[in-house]
Structures are given as C-alpha cells and as structure tokens.
Amino acid sequence: VRAHKIIKEHAPNVSTIICIGGIEDLSKEEMDREAEFAQTVRVADIWSVDKYMALHWGWPYDVAEHGGNTHKCDGVEKTYEMTRRSFERFKFLNGGQAKPMVISEFNADGDVTGPYEQVEMIKGFCNKIKEENALWFSGFTFYQFRDRGRLGLEIEDPNNPDVGVEQPALAAYKEIIHDEWFMPEIKTGGEAILPATLRWGGSEDADGLALPLHFEKNPVFCELYFEDDSNLMIELNGRWFYKSPKAKFVDLMPAFFEKPLDGEKDMTLKIFAPPATGENDPAQGGDWDVNYYYKLEKLSKIRIRYETMI
C-alpha cells in the first residue's frame, strides 16, 4: 500500500496490481490471510490471481507420478470457479466496486497432463470464458513462452538452450488469441485527409488509418514501399507487420500463407504509429504522457499481383 502511494505520487499513470492466491478452497467464503491483504485489494488498480489448472511444483527435483505429492490437477471447472469466486471476494472487500480482474500466471503443466490434455485444458478454460460471457474477466498472462519443464508454449531443447521445441499448446494459443471474442475491438469510421495525425495511447488504445483494398483473388505478390522514416504497425487479414524507421519495404504475403483467399474479397489495411524509441515526446502537449502523435505525410505504394513474373 505504501509503495502504491509513492508510485502514484511520482508516476500517476503507472497502474499497480495485487496478485495473491485468492479463493483456493471452494468450501470457504474467505481467502487465506484475507485480513492481511484486504487493504491492498482496495488500493490496487488491478486484481489478479495465479491459477494453474495443473502444476508440478516439484520440478526439477522429481518427476510427477501417480501417488506423488508434488503436483496437482484442479481442472477447468474448479479453476474457473476459484477465479470467479476470487473476483467476487475482491469486489466484496472493495465495498461492492469492481476493478479489472486478471490471471497473471495461467497454464496447465504438461508435466502433469502431457501435451495433449494440456491443450484441452487451455482451450476448455477459454471456451468457458466465452460460454459464460465472463465480462468480469479482463485477461490472462500465459506462463510461459519457453520453459525448461513443460509449462511453455515451447520447451527448451536440452541440447541447446537457445532453441525451443514447439508444443501443441502454441498452435492452440495462437487460435485462441485470433478468436474474435478475445481480440481487441477495432472501430472504423470517418474520413482521413493527408497529412493525417495518428495517435498512439497503447496497443489497445490508438487511432490509425484503415485503407480499403480490393483483391481479385489470392495474390502472389502483396508489398508495401515507403519513402519516409515512419515507425508503423500494419495489419492485414489478421496478420500484424512491423515497419521500422529504416525499412523501406514490407512484404505482406505472410498474411495469406495460413489464410489464403478463395476468391474475390474486399479487405482493410490498418496502419498505426507507435513511437519508434518506445518513449513519448514531452514537447507534444499536455497529454504527452499518455499519448504519442505522428503525422503521416503520405501513404506507401502498394504492389498487388496475381500472377508470377515468369
């Protein structure tokens, strides 16, 4: 609580998060050590719990086997209910007022489930969120991308720590984050006149350009050519591309490798401009600490071809 107050005094735009166990015993109304954390729940900007549908906490000192006491498997339904009950308890402690609720560490440990049941649990939890229309739930952080055990979307190659071995969970996770229910909302409307000022407030709070494109069929070439030093994030057909200030060319064809067009289609090319240095500019006005602005003087040239050049 003291840290929160100091942070808000010196960096008011920084959000704090309280991450505790939450409800871990569904037979109890209260959380363990609730009195100790009650004030923290009221003060923090975001609420969180760590919830593993399965976990082998004995790694790397033992192997999860039947009869062992260093692993568990709570499953989808119990994990969802513990998370929901945790939110309700946090809300109760906060006088009935809700705050954003997340899971800061989420997964099913492949050491316990194996790679296939791990996928089923991950997909099952996300399907539960959709089926329940759980708008009280704001998001989760998958733990983790690469792991020496079996918690990662990849596991570390024991022969080379710089190499990852893709797990079935990676494809499942990619499918989930492309699900319309879980994607950030993008609204289009209005008319842009160049030069256009693009605003970047964050990856889910930005104003960009939406350019209509017509495709006769699946392209063989789809490319952008630039004459400026813009720093851009570009989206087409659900695939994101980055253009650095030095780049003069972006190949958009990967947008069609997994989702090829089966005929004529109208699509939208979306363009956003985050700060190239990762820092906002104090000279940009009173809201510089939350927004970054970039003036796009001209559009890139686009090359779309439907036949090979041979």
Number of helices: 6
Per DSSP, what share of the residues sits in E-state strands of 2 or more residues? 25-35%
List low-pLDDT spans: none
Number of strands: 18
Principal-axes geometry comes out as: globular
Helix and strand composition category:
alpha+beta
| Rg (C-alpha, Å) | 23 Å
Mean pLDDT: 95
Query: How would a textbook summarize the main sheet?
Result: 5 strands, mixed
Order of SSEs: HEHEEHEHEEEEHEEEEEEEHEEE
Distance linking N and C termini: 68 Å
Helix content: 10-25%
List strands and helices in order, with pairings.
Blueprint: H1 2-10, E1 17-20, H2 34-43, E2 46-56, E3 71-73, H3 75-93, E4 101-108, H4 110-131, E5 137-142, E6 146-147, E7 154-157, E8 160-166, H5 168-177, E9 196-202, E10 205-207, E11 209-215, E12 221-225, E13 232-236, E14 239-243, E15 249-251, H6 254-257, E16 265-272, E17 292-296, E18 301-305
Task: Produce a short descriptive summary.
The protein has helices at 2-10, 34-43, 75-93, 110-131, 168-177, 254-257; strands at residues 17-20, 46-56, 71-73, 101-108, 137-142, 146-147, 154-157, 160-166, 196-202, 205-207, 209-215, 221-225, 232-236, 239-243, 249-251, 265-272, 292-296, 301-305. With 310 residues, the chain is of the alpha+beta class.
Textual characterization of the structure:
The model has no long low-confidence stretch (mean pLDDT 95). The chain is of the alpha+beta class. The protein has six helices and 18 strands. The strands form five sheets. Strands 1, 2, 3, 4 and 5 form a five-stranded mixed beta sheet that branches. It has a four-stranded antiparallel beta sheet with strand order 11-16-13-14, with no helix packed on it. The chain has helices at residues 2-10, 34-43, 75-93, 110-131, 168-177, 254-257, and strands at residues 17-20, 46-56, 71-73, 101-108, 137-142, 146-147, 154-157, 160-166, 196-202, 205-207, 209-215, 221-225, 232-236, 239-243, 249-251, 265-272, 292-296, 301-305. A hairpin with a 2-residue loop joins strand 7 and strand 8. The protein is globular and about 65 Å long. The longest helix is centred in the middle third of the chain and has 22 residues, at 110-131.
